[in-house]
Amino acid sequence: MMRWLIGTACALMISACGYHLVGQGGTSDVIPKDAVALQVQMLNNHDIALLTVVEQALEQRMSLPLMKENKHSEDHLLHVYIEHAQEKMLATSFDSAGIANQYRLTISGKMRVLYQTKQRWESSIMTVQGDVFATGDAIAIEAQRESVAKSLRKEWVQHVLQRMYSGF
After folding, report:
1. pLDDT tens for each residue of the chain, 168 residues long
2. Which of 16, 17, 67, 103 could crosslink 37 through cysteines, CB 3.0-4.6 Å?
3. Quick check: helix, strand or coil at residue 156?
4. Nearest C-alpha neighbor of 83 from the set 49, 144, 42, 135
5. pTM for the full model?
6. Where in the chain are the domains?
7. CATH classification of 2-166 is 3.30.160.150, yes or no?
């Protein structure tokens, strides 16, 4: 009985102090209540595929319309910047002839959120990785690389949004 009481007390103290897992924070102060639209831009790179995944995820999660052009005043426009986005593929394993048979695909970058010219949140550099196996000809390898990249882009966005909504 005493163990149950101590366990319950510890659980209540942890929840009372605001402790939560990344991405499990519910609402976030990053997104202001009076924002009427969202604009996403890539800086330092123009990875259209990553930009599209970010736009779709933000529009769906925030319930704000996506603005490609400034139709609203800057006062109520939430700016999201993707910075230092990189997609790299490096050979990690070779066969006996010295030909690469496995690659490591890495997607990294950071995100900043600004509202009314003030920074509301900034992530650290977030990185996700996956392996591409070289089986078949160059077309098959490229198709597998694109399949892994598509999955990693979604994973990267998920990690960044979890950080943003948890407040970390």
Report:
1. 777 777 777 676 666 555 545 444 555 678 888 888 999 999 987 788 999 999 999 988 888 888 877 665 677 899 999 999 999 999 999 999 998 999 999 999 999 999 998 999 999 999 999 999 988 888 999 999 999 999 999 999 999 999 998 876
2. 67
3. helix
4. 42
5. 0.80
6. 2-166
7. yes
